[in-house]
Amino acid sequence: MVGRRCPMSVLTSRPALRWLVPVAAVVTVIGGGAALGRFAAEAEPSLPPRSAAQLLVDLQTARFEGLSGTVVQRADLGLPPIAGLVAADGPASLLTGSHTLRVWHSGPDQQRIALVDTLGQRDFIRNGRDVWLWNSRTNTATHRVLPEGKEAANPAEMPATPQEAAAQALAAVDPTTEVSVGRSATVAGRDAYELVLTPRDAASLVHQVRIAIDATAHLPLRFEVFAAGGDRPAFELAFTQIDYARPDADQFTFNPPPDVQVTEKKGGWEHPEQSEQPGPTNDGGHPDLRTVGTGWTTVLVAKIDEVERPTAAAEDAPDLDLLAGQLPAVQGDWGSGRLFRTDLVTALLTDDGRLIVGAVSPERLYEVARG
C-alpha cells in the first residue's frame, strides 16, 4: 500500500495520460442495462514484484510516440427498466451495454476516436488546430479551429480509453484512498500489473477501481470500476488490441463525405476548469454547474431552468418530466423531489429545479441538497 504521499500531480505531470481527458459534466445515466462479465481472462503472467508506489511512478514517467488500437467499453450499472426515454445516439448511450472504439494518437495535437456501433460511426478528430466531430448516421459534421494555445477536449463527456479513465481516477488519489497492487494479468497480448484504488469513505458507491498497467510501456491497458457489493465490473474499458507504432498522418485528415452538412463553430470544447467565465455558456445550452466535496464523494449540482430542459419535442432528447414521473418521490428537511439510483450513480432531481449527481449514497445527496 502507498501512504499519504501519493501526489495529486500524478495526473497533471503525466503526459501519457493527459492527451484526451474528457469534459467533466453531469452524467445522465438512464436506459437499460446489459449483462456484463469481465473480459476473457488469460493466464496470469509471472512478473517481477513492484510496489504501488513504483507503479504510480511508472505511470508518471511513461512516454510514447504514438499508439493505435481497439478499445471495448462495457457498462452494467444496474439501471432501472426505463429504456427508451433516452436517445441511443448520445453520451448516455455509452453507459449501457457494450461498445467498440478505435483510437489513434500521434503527439499532443493529433488524436482520433471512432465509436462504431450498429447505427453508424461517430468520429472525434484533432489535427493541429482543426477539430472535427462527424456523425455518419446523420451525415453531419462540426468543424472548429482552435485558438492558439488551446487544447481540444473530447466532447463525448465520457472516457474513451483506459488512459482517460485512469487519469480521472488517479486525480482522486489522496489520504481518502487506499492504494495497493492486485494480480498481474495479460491484456491485449501485453503483460500487465494491476493497481487497485479503494475509497475509504463509506459514502462512496465505488468499491474499487482496478487499473491494468503495461509492464513495459507503463500505459493503462484496462480500467475497471466495481460498485459496492458487486463482484463484476460495473464499468470497464480495455484495449483488445494495441500497437505502439506512430499512426500514419492520413488517419487524422478528415475528408467530408458527399452531401455532408458541415457546421462551422468558433473555439474548442473546453474543460470546465479552463472556462474563462463561470455559469452558462454563451449559447445558453448548458445549466450552471458546481461541485461539492472532493475525491470519491464529489457531487455535481446543476441548476435546471425550464427553458433549458430538453423535451420530447427536441430531436434525440429525453423528456425529463416524463422521466421524473417514473422515479420514486422522496422528501425531507432539504425539500422534495425524485430519486434515481443505480449500483454506481445516484441522482436527485429536486422540485426547486436542481439536479444533484454523484457516485454516492442518497444520504450524501440529501446533505448537499440541504446545504
How would you sum up this structure, described in words?
The chain is mainly β. It folds into 2 domains: 241 residues, outer membrane lipoprotein receptor (LolB), chain A, CATH 2.50.20; 84 residues, TATA-Binding Protein (2-Layer Sandwich). The strands form 2 sheets. Strands 1, 2, 3, 4, 5, 6, 7, 8, 9, 10, 11, 12 and 13 form a 13-stranded mixed β-sheet that branches. The longest helix is centred in the first third of the chain and has 10 residues. The N terminus is likely disordered.
Low-pLDDT regions: 1-41, 81-89, 270-287, 306-318
Q: What is the terminal-to-terminal distance?
A: 35 Å
Mean pLDDT: 75
Number of strands: 19
Largest sheet, described in full? 13 strands, mixed
* Number of helical segments with 4 or more residues: 5
Strand content: 25-35%
The ordered H/E elements are HHEEEEEEHEEEEEEEEEHEEEEH
What proportion of the residues is helical, as a percent range? 10-25%
Number of structurally distinct domains: 2
Any idea what the shape is?
Answer: globular
Structural category is mainly beta
Q: What's the CATH architecture of the largest domain?
A: Clam
Overall CATH class of the largest domain: Mainly Beta
